[in-house]
Specification:
Helix content: 25-40%
Radius of gyration: 26 Å
Structural class: alpha+beta
Number of domains: 2
Strand content: 15-25%
Distance between the termini: 98 Å
């Protein structure tokens, strides 16, 4: 064979092998990607190994651990701590939710139970600085098929996980598999954590400002930043109502001063109008109430002292006005006539 032809043949062979290797790696990646899950359903893709990507300076000493490991459970790894710059090393893809809600640090540890052979669990304890911040990340991720627990005022479980708020802490316990044996050890750890970590009992008073009529159970949430795409809407509580078969959202936020609430309401109305909304005349018995039609839905915005309150995504005016009046009456009942 001619030397040039032989060289070309060898080169083509090498190129073919390289292309084949790339295809194999790509196919393997696609196959593995199919097994990625939500954190509440075996989300192990967000659980980094206990030694991967964590600087040695991030290792807590034993007296810093928040993990009261019960005697019936076996620790599989030492506790680790992740501060804001390193949070994404541990929970790839979800770090921004916590960071935007006031995240301080995360401590994690893996453990197992002799009563659940072959399975292991990992606890994630997020220090969110305040009870409201902890509730914000808790409520943002609650699943519709969750079962409520009485461990704390805000706690629930799924088939392979347990979630709760305890003071400024948000706890997740995620198991490697869903089985009948996996819940008792998770519950044992959660109870030990709640019993051993003393926190100040703080009620989230805004939850009591939503009328209960037609309220969807466990739908009250707290959005820390950029609620509804409006960058100035932070600390915004929301709730979902079902009226005549349609879901409607109510929202409210305490701005700590009437002037601040009024200025923010005006800015939000301007935001809606800038995106194609138009003001609609309304005879609502609420002082300073404004109705806006946008994208074939109706919004109502009104003030009650330092609170900015509203209804959004109503399918018709009647639904929007009815829910706005209920919210207004509830606010008067709880906070007094203003």
């Amino acid at each position: 064979m001619h030397p040039i032809i032989e060289t070309r043949s060898n080169l083509q062979t090498y190129l073919s092998l390289i292309i084949l290797a790339v295809l194999v790696i790509t196919a393997t990646g696609i196959f593995l990607w199919q097994f990625r899950y939500h954190p509440a359903v075996l989300n192990l893709d967000n659980i980094v190994s206990s030694t991967e990507g964590v600087p040695q300076t991030q290792k807590p000493s034993s007296d810093e651990s928040r993990f009261p490991m019960p005697e019936d459970l076996v620790a599989l790894s030492p506790p680790e701590v992740f501060e804001p710059p390193h949070l994404s090393d541990k929970i790839t893809g979800r770090a921004e939710l916590y960071l935007s809600a006031g995240f301080v640090d995360l401590q994690t540890q893996r453990f197992a139970s002799p009563d659940a052979p072959g399975a292991w669990m990992e606890a994630f304890i997020y220090n969110m600085a305040t009870n409201q911040n902890a509730f914000a990340v808790f409520s943002a991720q609650r699943r519709d098929d969750a079962d409520s627990l009485s461990l704390t005022p805000h706690a629930y479980r799924t088939k392979n996980a347990l979630f709760l708020v305890h003071g400024a802490y948000y706890l997740e316990i995620i198991a490697s598999e869903a089985s009948a044996d996996i819940f008792p050890p998770m519950l044992l750890f959660a109870k030990a954590f709640v019993d051993s970590i003393q926190v100040e009992s703080v009620q989230i008073s805004e939850k009591n400002l939503f009328t209960e009529t037609d309220l969807v159970e466990n739908s009250i949430s707290l959005i820390s930043t950029d609620a509804f795409g409006f960058e100035r809407f932070d600390r915004m509580f929301t709730a979902i109502y079902t009226i005549d078969g349609a879901e409607i959202m109510a929202f409210l936020s305490n701005r700590n001063a009437e002037e601040k609430a009024a200025e923010l309401a005006e800015a939000y109305q301007g935001f809606l109008l800038a995106f194609g909304g138009r003001k609609i005349q309304t005879d609502l018995p609420i002082k300073n109430a404004t109705m806006v039609e946008i994208l074939d839905t109706y919004e109502v915005i009104f003030l009650h002292g330092p609170y900015i309150v509203g209804v959004r995504e109503a399918q018709n005016r009647t639904q929007a006005e009815a829910l706005a009046v209920r919210l207004y009456e509830k606010l008067k009942e709880v906070t007094g006539e203003l």
